[in-house]
Structure to design on (400 residues):
């Protein structure tokens, strides 16, 4: 049987669900791309102000918001809770009544749900008569490629220099379409991959397609390069060390009968530790340069370092699992056996303080599949909102 304190937390969390759902639909209707989340940040500021929660705005390029709710007793620890706010440049095809009103932009990754749940948690926490911990609320812009998390950290979101007290532990979540509603999952150590990218320009010698012997065909060279890059994961790394090298774009030439002067490749590299990350970069550069040279071409490479690996602290993660198991049942808390090769800029918070990122199930029970993240048909499942809010509230109230 739940204790009186546990019951009061659940009641407080459930009481705010209708309001949080209304906010979620509003944010979904008016999505904003990274660093453009002005309306979204305005909603966050409005809600925090209404609750009397101390806050500052204008962070991380202008749209980041930081809130602080002190504990009701002295000597408290500080728990941070984080949500991302930005949308994606995708045209929505859900047909929902609250579908995006912004041409070519939608909440295809569920950040509307993340933001609404954190605002719901703030409202629930404000209603509790006793709060054991200080709580820092982090509403960050630009998770979708802009490293808004890194900017929030650089501007004092965790160290107490801008607002509140230094953070002892931080938690964040992501709605997960592959996982059943009513469940949460995570793991100690790497949960999500580092996400680096590269551009490679292969320069050959163009000419008439009928006379390839007079040319150095960069399209053929590019084809050899793409094939050779696949040996990085299969032949340079231990099979138990997950590495992904994907060329997602090839551009070369303009018509049927002309060999172009150059071809351009764009790709991504995903790794789970810094040693592998360095080796993978070295191998990508080496293979592109040396395969091109072997076939008579030259290659120029631009490397774009992306987000680090999202790595969960053991203490923070075991605390999450313990709290979630007590609240929802052990069968609803899943130990994720392997990392995902997707990426997240929550990783920057984990480089500075103990951190745990967890996944919140979105797939309806009895349904084999749910629209995936970053697709036109994705919509955050409102039925997941109560569990997300309650998880946040419990993480903020239980002893650290």
């Amino acid at each position: 049987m739940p204790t009186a304190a546990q019951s009061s937390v659940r009641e407080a969390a459930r009481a705010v669900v209708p309001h949080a759902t209304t906010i979620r639909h509003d944010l979904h209707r008016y999505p904003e791309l990274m660093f453009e989340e002005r309306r979204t940040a305005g909603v966050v500021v409005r809600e925090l102000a209404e609750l009397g929660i101390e806050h500052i705005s204008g962070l991380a390029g202008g749209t980041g918001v930081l809130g602080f709710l002190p504990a009701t007793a002295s000597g408290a620890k500080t728990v941070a809770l984080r949500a991302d706010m930005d949308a994606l440049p995708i045209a929505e095809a859900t047909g929902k009544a609250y579908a995006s009103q912004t041409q070519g932009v939608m909440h295809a990754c569920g950040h509307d749900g993340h933001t609404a749940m954190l605002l719901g948690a703030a409202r629930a926490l404000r209603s509790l008569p006793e709060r054991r911990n200080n709580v820092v609320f982090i509403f960050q812009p630009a998770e979708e490629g802009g490293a808004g998390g890194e900017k929030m950290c650089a501007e004092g979101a965790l160290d107490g220099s801008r607002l509140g007290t230094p953070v002892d532990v931080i938690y964040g979540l992501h709605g997960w379409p592959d996982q059943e509603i009513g469940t949460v999952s995570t793991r100690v150590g790497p949960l999500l991959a580092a996400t680096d990218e590269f551009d490679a320009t292969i320069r050959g010698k163009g000419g008439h397609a009928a006379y390839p012997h007079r040319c150095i065909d960069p399209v053929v060279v590019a084809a050899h390069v793409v094939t050779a890059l696949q040996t990085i994961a299969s032949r340079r790394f231990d099979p138990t060390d997950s590495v992904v090298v994907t060329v997602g774009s090839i551009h070369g030439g303009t018509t049927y009968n002309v060999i172009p002067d150059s071809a351009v490749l764009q790709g991504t590299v995903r790794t789970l530790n810094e040693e592998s990350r360095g080796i993978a970069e070295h191998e990508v550069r080496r293979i592109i340069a040396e395969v091109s040279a072997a076939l008579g071409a030259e290659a120029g490479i631009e490397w774009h370092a992306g987000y680090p690996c999202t790595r969960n602290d053991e203490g923070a993660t075991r605390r999450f699992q313990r709290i979630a198991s007590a609240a929802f049942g052990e069968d609803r808390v899943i130990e994720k056996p392997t990392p995902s090769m997707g990426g997240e800029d929550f990783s920057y918070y984990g480089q500075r303080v103990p951190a745990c990122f967890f996944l919140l199930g979105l797939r309806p029970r009895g349904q084999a599949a749910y629209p995936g993240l970053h697709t036109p048909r994705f919509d955050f499942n409102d039925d997941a909102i109560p569990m997300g809010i309650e998880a946040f509230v419990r993480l903020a109230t239980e002893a650290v």
